[in-house]
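User: Sequence recovery, please. Input:
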């Protein structure tokens, strides 16, 4: 075959490959930080102000909103589905096991939505508001550029929430596989777990850890048992990071190295497994953790967004537009 013919075939194949790559990345390319530059130019300022107010009133709210975003994105993508209330004819995700009586911050998202609607009505999705609020609550921690343009779902899936979200009792292999199913690497998973440097959790989620597990600092276990009886007190709270529960930093990883992870799933990241070396690196290098956390948040925020004409822009984050 003549060299010119071979060259032509190669060029054709390269064009086809480029087209496939373009189509595969088209969804991501429609998410852009400038999506509302003309239609709602004050959006980020409005969200940032409202989140700052909410966190000032209740510092724990930063962790709660961050968790909402994580639980939203892991269930059929970052589409605001977690915000939908149940109705007599609709079952949402709020009462899925990972969310029931523990997911919180919905009122804050409602308040932000009201402010945004006053500034630019029927323009900004609840999914995008949640993505921005998750970043803006991490006061004193890392920041990242939030790509925008998500639309809101008209459906939700309680069963998917039950199946896809990792639990506090997850093993390392389960954590790795559940994150991999969403296109997130083991490194992404370990960095995103660092969100537990802020916030609190309920006794029912760490009782087994502090009463029955052996890879735990004895004095730490004794301290946590003081507020978590062997029976009862399920909703009693303890900080995920006792050293600085309201400050975003690398103490979480230092705790893991010292066998002071509060949840079983936390300590799994440092338990003679594949993530031990990375945990040690994060414990020593806050800048590395911040950089990886920011990158992983951007990556998570691009999971299966509704774009273009899919979904809708809900006027009320709790219910589908009529």
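Assistant: Recovered sequence (322 residues):
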């Amino acid at each position: 075959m003549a060299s010119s013919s071979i060259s032509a075939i190669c060029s054709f194949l390269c064009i086809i490959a480029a087209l496939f790559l373009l189509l595969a990345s088209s969804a991501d390319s429609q998410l852009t930080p400038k999506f509302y530059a003309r239609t709602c130019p004050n959006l980020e300022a409005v969200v940032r102000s409202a989140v700052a107010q909410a966190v000032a009133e209740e510092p724990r709210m930063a962790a709660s909103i961050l968790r909402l975003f994580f639980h939203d994105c892991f269930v059929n993508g970052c589409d605001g589905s977690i915000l939908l209330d149940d109705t007599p004819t609709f079952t949402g995700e709020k009462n899925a096991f990972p969310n029931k009586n523990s997911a919180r911050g919905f009122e804050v998202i409602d308040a932000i939505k009201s402010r945004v609607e006053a500034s630019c009505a029927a323009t900004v999705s609840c999914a995008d508001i949640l993505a921005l609020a998750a970043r803006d609550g991490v006061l004193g921690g890392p920041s990242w550029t939030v790509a925008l343009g998500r639309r809101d779902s008209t459906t939700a899936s309680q069963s998917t929430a039950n199946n896809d979200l990792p639990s506090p009792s997850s093993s390392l292999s389960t954590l790795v596989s559940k994150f991999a199913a969403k296109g997130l690497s083991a490194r992404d998973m370990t960095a995103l777990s660092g969100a537990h440097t802020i916030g609190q959790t309920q006794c029912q989620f760490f009782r087994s850890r502090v009463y029955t597990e052996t890879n735990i600092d004895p004095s730490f276990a004794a301290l946590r048992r003081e507020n978590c009886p062997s029976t009862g007190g399920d909703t009693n709270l303890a900080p995920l990071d006792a050293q600085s529960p309201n400050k975003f930093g690398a103490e979480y990883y230092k705790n893991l190295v010292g066998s002071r992870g509060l949840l079983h799933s936390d300590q799994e990241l440092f338990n003679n497994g594949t993530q031990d070396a990375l945990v040690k690196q994060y414990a020593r290098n806050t800048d590395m953790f911040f950089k990886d956390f920011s990158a992983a948040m951007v990556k998570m925020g691009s999971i299966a967004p509704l774009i273009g004409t899919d979904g809708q822009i809900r006027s009320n984050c709790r219910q589908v537009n009529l």
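Confidence is low (pLDDT under 50) at residues 1-10, 12-29.
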